[in-house]
Design a protein that fits this description.
The chain has four helices and five strands; from the N terminus they run βββαβαβαα. The protein starts with 5 loop residues before the first strand and ends with a helix. By secondary structure, the chain is an alpha/beta fold. The chain has one domain: Nucleotidyltransferase, domain 5, CATH 3.30.420. The radius of gyration is 14 Å and the shape is globular. It has a five-stranded mixed sheet, sandwiched between helices. It has helices at residues 39-52, 72-87, 100-110, 115-141, and strands spanning 6-11, 15-21, 28-35, 57-62, 92-96. Strand 4 (57-62), helix 2 (72-87) and strand 5 (92-96) form a beta-alpha-beta unit.
Protein backbone atom coordinates (compact mmCIF):
# COMPACT_ATOMS: atom_id res chain seq x y z
CA UNK A 1 0.00 0.00 0.00
CA UNK A 2 1.57 3.27 -1.05
CA UNK A 3 1.18 6.33 1.13
CA UNK A 4 -0.25 9.52 -0.25
CA UNK A 5 2.10 12.50 -0.20
CA UNK A 6 0.81 16.01 -0.77
CA UNK A 7 2.56 19.15 -1.91
CA UNK A 8 0.75 22.49 -1.62
CA UNK A 9 1.34 25.73 -3.50
CA UNK A 10 0.25 29.20 -2.45
CA UNK A 11 0.35 31.01 -5.80
CA UNK A 12 1.13 34.73 -5.74
CA UNK A 13 2.14 37.18 -8.45
CA UNK A 14 5.77 37.32 -7.30
CA UNK A 15 6.23 34.28 -5.11
CA UNK A 16 4.86 30.76 -4.67
CA UNK A 17 4.86 29.26 -1.20
CA UNK A 18 5.51 25.53 -0.95
CA UNK A 19 4.50 23.08 1.78
CA UNK A 20 4.57 19.28 2.06
CA UNK A 21 2.61 16.81 4.15
CA UNK A 22 4.24 14.77 6.89
CA UNK A 23 4.58 11.01 6.20
CA UNK A 24 1.22 10.30 7.87
CA UNK A 25 -0.68 13.20 6.27
CA UNK A 26 -1.67 14.66 9.62
CA UNK A 27 -0.05 18.07 9.22
CA UNK A 28 1.76 20.29 6.72
CA UNK A 29 5.35 21.49 6.84
CA UNK A 30 6.36 24.79 5.23
CA UNK A 31 8.98 23.86 2.67
CA UNK A 32 10.15 27.05 0.98
CA UNK A 33 9.34 29.93 -1.29
CA UNK A 34 9.86 30.00 -5.03
CA UNK A 35 10.43 33.37 -6.73
CA UNK A 36 8.49 33.51 -9.99
CA UNK A 37 10.35 33.93 -13.28
CA UNK A 38 7.63 33.47 -15.91
CA UNK A 39 4.93 30.85 -16.39
CA UNK A 40 6.99 28.25 -18.28
CA UNK A 41 9.94 28.43 -15.86
CA UNK A 42 7.51 28.40 -12.91
CA UNK A 43 5.69 25.29 -14.16
CA UNK A 44 9.01 23.48 -14.74
CA UNK A 45 10.31 24.40 -11.26
CA UNK A 46 7.08 23.30 -9.55
CA UNK A 47 6.99 20.08 -11.55
CA UNK A 48 10.55 19.36 -10.39
CA UNK A 49 9.48 19.99 -6.76
CA UNK A 50 6.47 17.67 -7.10
CA UNK A 51 8.65 14.88 -8.52
CA UNK A 52 11.45 15.39 -5.97
CA UNK A 53 9.02 15.25 -3.05
CA UNK A 54 7.34 12.15 -4.49
CA UNK A 55 3.93 13.83 -4.33
CA UNK A 56 0.89 11.78 -5.28
CA UNK A 57 -1.30 14.92 -5.42
CA UNK A 58 -0.93 18.69 -5.40
CA UNK A 59 -3.15 21.12 -3.49
CA UNK A 60 -3.27 24.70 -4.79
CA UNK A 61 -4.76 27.60 -2.92
CA UNK A 62 -7.52 29.35 -4.81
CA UNK A 63 -7.82 32.99 -3.75
CA UNK A 64 -11.45 34.09 -3.54
CA UNK A 65 -13.08 37.17 -2.01
CA UNK A 66 -14.18 36.98 1.62
CA UNK A 67 -17.79 36.44 0.47
CA UNK A 68 -16.69 33.51 -1.70
CA UNK A 69 -16.98 35.32 -5.04
CA UNK A 70 -14.14 35.23 -7.55
CA UNK A 71 -11.50 37.95 -7.60
CA UNK A 72 -9.02 38.99 -10.30
CA UNK A 73 -6.46 36.83 -8.46
CA UNK A 74 -8.84 33.85 -8.71
CA UNK A 75 -8.84 34.06 -12.50
CA UNK A 76 -5.03 34.36 -12.62
CA UNK A 77 -4.60 31.44 -10.22
CA UNK A 78 -7.08 29.25 -12.16
CA UNK A 79 -5.20 29.89 -15.40
CA UNK A 80 -1.91 28.95 -13.75
CA UNK A 81 -3.44 25.87 -12.09
CA UNK A 82 -4.75 24.69 -15.49
CA UNK A 83 -1.22 24.96 -16.93
CA UNK A 84 0.10 23.08 -13.90
CA UNK A 85 -2.53 20.35 -14.35
CA UNK A 86 -1.48 19.87 -17.96
CA UNK A 87 2.18 19.51 -16.95
CA UNK A 88 1.89 17.28 -13.88
CA UNK A 89 1.46 13.51 -13.76
CA UNK A 90 -0.59 13.75 -10.52
CA UNK A 91 -4.00 15.27 -9.63
CA UNK A 92 -4.15 18.97 -8.81
CA UNK A 93 -6.78 19.94 -6.22
CA UNK A 94 -8.00 23.49 -5.58
CA UNK A 95 -8.57 24.55 -1.98
CA UNK A 96 -10.19 27.78 -0.80
CA UNK A 97 -7.40 29.84 0.69
CA UNK A 98 -9.49 32.67 2.08
CA UNK A 99 -7.73 33.31 5.37
CA UNK A 100 -4.44 31.50 4.95
CA UNK A 101 -2.10 34.39 4.13
CA UNK A 102 -3.63 36.54 6.84
CA UNK A 103 -3.28 33.63 9.30
CA UNK A 104 0.36 33.18 8.25
CA UNK A 105 1.13 36.88 8.83
CA UNK A 106 -0.54 36.76 12.24
CA UNK A 107 1.44 33.66 13.24
CA UNK A 108 4.74 35.25 12.27
CA UNK A 109 3.85 38.55 13.95
CA UNK A 110 2.91 36.71 17.14
CA UNK A 111 6.32 35.00 17.01
CA UNK A 112 7.91 38.45 16.84
CA UNK A 113 9.39 38.04 13.38
CA UNK A 114 10.54 41.25 11.69
CA UNK A 115 8.74 42.39 8.55
CA UNK A 116 11.64 41.78 6.10
CA UNK A 117 12.10 38.26 7.39
CA UNK A 118 8.34 37.60 7.37
CA UNK A 119 8.30 38.12 3.60
CA UNK A 120 10.59 35.11 3.22
CA UNK A 121 8.39 32.80 5.26
CA UNK A 122 4.82 33.97 4.82
CA UNK A 123 4.17 32.21 1.49
CA UNK A 124 5.47 28.83 2.68
CA UNK A 125 3.42 29.19 5.85
CA UNK A 126 0.33 30.15 3.83
CA UNK A 127 0.88 27.02 1.70
CA UNK A 128 1.11 24.98 4.91
CA UNK A 129 -2.18 26.50 6.12
CA UNK A 130 -3.84 25.58 2.79
CA UNK A 131 -2.55 22.01 3.09
CA UNK A 132 -3.52 21.75 6.77
CA UNK A 133 -7.08 22.74 5.85
CA UNK A 134 -7.19 20.08 3.14
CA UNK A 135 -5.64 17.36 5.35
CA UNK A 136 -8.03 18.04 8.22
CA UNK A 137 -10.98 17.62 5.81
CA UNK A 138 -9.46 14.36 4.54
CA UNK A 139 -8.88 13.06 8.05
CA UNK A 140 -12.44 13.95 9.09
CA UNK A 141 -13.77 11.94 6.15
CA UNK A 142 -11.44 9.09 7.06
CA UNK A 143 -10.21 8.82 3.48
Amino acid sequence: MSMERYVAFDIGDKRIGIAVSDPFNTYALPSGTYLRRGVEADIEALKKTVLEKGATAVVCGLPVNFDGTEAVQTVKARKFIEALRAALPVPVICEDERFTTQMAHETLISEGMRREKRKLYVDALAAANILDGYLSKLNKKGV
